Amino acid sequence: MITRNIFLFLAQNDFVKNRAEKWGPKFGAKSVIAGETIDEAMETARKLNEKGLSVTVDHLGEFVYNKDEAIDAADYCVRTLNAMAEAGVDCNLSLKLTQLGLDIDKELCLSNMRMILDTAKEHSNFVRIDMEDYSHLDPTLEVLQELRRDYDNVGTAIQAYLFRAEKDIDDLKGMNLRLIKGAYNEPPEVAYQKADDVYRNYMNIIKRHMLNGSYAAVATHDHNIIAEVKQFAEENNISRDQFEFQMLYGFRTDMQEQIASEGYKMRVYVPFGNDWYGYFMRRLAERPQNITFAVRGLLSK
Question: For FAD, which residues are the binding ones (predicted)?
C-alpha cells in the first residue's frame, strides 16, 4: 500500500512530471505506450489485430483547463477515428472528459463529445469514456446520460473500489461498460481500502452486470478473475458475445493471445501520445510487479 501511494502521489506531482517529460518516455514507459502519433497507434493496432486481438486506443491527456486545448483534443479524437476507418483496423476509441473541457464548461464538453460520436457513428465505431477520479464521477455520468439520449455508441467504466459501484451498475443497466478495480487514490469515505474487499466487489459487479443481460468489458490482468468469469459465463449460459476481456498494452501479452485463441474477445487498451507520465505512474501503482518495466527501461538507455 505504501508503494502504491508513493506512485499515486508522483502521478499528480507537477515538478516530477515536468522533469520526467524532459527525459522522454523512459523508465519502461516505452514498453506500454504505442508511440506518440496516430500513425504509430494505427501500426500497433494492425499488429495486434494480426494476432487476433481487438484494440481500443487512447490519446493520453487529462485535466485540460484551456478551451482551445479542449477543442484541439476533440479534433485529434476525430482524426484518430478517421484514421481507424482508413486503416481498416478493429479498434475503438477511449477518452477522458477532462481532456475535452469537462472542468471548463459542461456544454463545451458535450459539444466536443457530440462531434466525436457523430464521427464514430459514421464509421460504425464505439467510444468509451474513461472514468477518472471520484470528484469527476457524477459530472461524467451526467454527461454520459445526456449523450445516451441521442447516441448508443458510447459507454463508460465503473470502478469496483467505490462503494457506490453496484448502484451505478444497476443505474446503467443495458449499457456497454468497462469494469475495473480502479486506479486513483480515493479516501476511505468513498472507497474500499483493502484488496480483498475490492476483489469481492469487483466480482460482484461483473456478475451482476452480466446477469442483467448487459455487455461487460472485464478489464483485468488477474488470471484468477479471468478463470472465474469464464466459469460463471458457462454456468449461467451467458454468450461470449455478451462480454470481452481487456488488458493494457505491454502487459501479460502471452495471456492476451491465449485468451483470444480460446475464442474469447480480447481487447488491448493502447495509449499513445506525449502526455504519458500520469498514466504510467498509475500503472506502477496498481501492481508492484509493474516496477520491473521501469528497471528494464532504465537499463535499456
Answer: 131, 159, 181-183, 220-221
